[in-house]
Amino acid sequence: MRKTTKLAIAFIALAGAVGGGAYAENVDSATMRERTMMRLDKAMKDNNGTITFDQFSDVMDARLKKLVADNGGKLTVAQLADALEKARFERMARRIIARYDSKGDGTLTSDDISGREKKLFAILDKNNDGKIENRELPKSGRFGRHRQGGDDENGMQ
Q1: Of 21, 61, 87, 129, which is most buried, counting CB atoms within 10 Å of its CB?
Q2: Which sequence spans correspond to the domains of the chain?
Q3: Whole-prediction pTM value?
Q4: pLDDT digit string, tens, across residues 126-149
């Protein structure tokens, strides 16, 4: 195996372990490989079917490299943890706003929250009596209940 091929494979493994795990929380390794291959395929197409190591390196963990550069060429555990936490919470915030934002303007209002709660209440109130009874709640799934020892079917002990 050529030295450049070995180096490329080692770099992919390192990038996947460090950058992939850092930026793709809860994403399985198959998805990470797929995303990496998509970036590499795009780089190949953009460069007439071949890429140099420098081009390959540019494709891999640009965000991680930017963090290092933004922090004077060195990244501490605390700095990386802060960046990861910020990225994670920004992803969560985008998902929450997308879920609740009824006007599609990228903001969250009290009306958006009330509207979503009303829809959810209507889904759970199966007999439309304006009340959710214990038997109307799903036994499992997203709104499922976890029974504790001794509970009867009405949730009473």
Answers
A1: 61
A2: 3-72
A3: 0.49
A4: 999 999 988 888 887 665 554 444
